[in-house]
Amino acid sequence: MKEITYQPIGIIHSPFKTPENVPIQHTGAKGAVGTIEILPEYNEGLKDLEGFSHIMLLFHMHQVEYHKLKVIPFLDTVERGIFSSRAPVRPNPIGLTVVKLIKIEGNIITVENIDMTDGTPLLDIKPCLPMIDDLQDIKLGWLTGKIEQFGVTRSDSRFNKTSK
Amino acid sequence: MKEITYQPIGIIHSPFKTPENVPIQHTGAKGAVGTIEILPEYNEGLKDLEGFSHIMLLFHMHQVEYHKLKVIPFLDTVERGIFSSRAPVRPNPIGLTVVKLIKIEGNIITVENIDMTDGTPLLDIKPCLPMIDDLQDIKLGWLTGKIEQFGVTRSDSRFNKTSK
Predict the structure, then answer these.
(1) pTM, whole model, 2 decimals?
(2) For A92, which of B2, B6, B139 is closest by C-beta distance?
(3) Radius of gyration (Cα) for chain B, nearest Å?
């Protein structure tokens, strides 16, 4: 199949300078404030965004240098398939996070609950809508009973290049 | 900023052959069954996925041939900024959908509530986790009061090449 090419639409400025000790999900990133700098040529696309309380960021995890199909995720001690985890060392390292929208000034968006490293290239912004009608129906597989730990677990160096 | 390149990990087979008359969100795609064919070299990454009831698909909207920064979305009659909408003609046409997982047999995943066209290249699969702790908090901007229409609204030809 054909290779797919994207151009970043902006850059994410975050308090987290290295891939260690980063919140592993936005639900564990309460209060971490960052800014998103949209490239001026895309600025017009931000119209109407300020009415939304939460926005989804799709970004390129630029510090990922390899991929693995089985990983020991931050929340587990056994190997899991990469597609059943949110681990960064994915074949296509696209990150997805929901952040709280604080304000938009020109091409700068201030957001809360940020969980990516500083300098991350941004691919897309989407308004955050309810994803599942009936949350009672949801089954979380191996993550059952573990997602509460998002609030206290931080990343470590396990997915760095040297720990491949 | 540097261009970003991805390789599809699979292909989505869907009952929707053209970009017209497709459900505009998975919440409006109840019951539409499709299959995802994972390239054999990524098959091992599917381990443990079958425990999840819902999975997120990130895909390349391959039929999008241009982008616009302001669009009249399917659910509206006035122009909105592209990043405040889910319209396909985005600078980076990455689609995101939550589907219900029916079964996994080898490298074939059968899913329900599919809302993309046949032959769509798949970029990533992530387990679907609750995205926002407190849904009471969510503000939906111009989509307030409109998302119920996902169930009855279908796409039309407005984002086809000829209607640019």
Answers:
(1) 0.89
(2) B6
(3) 16
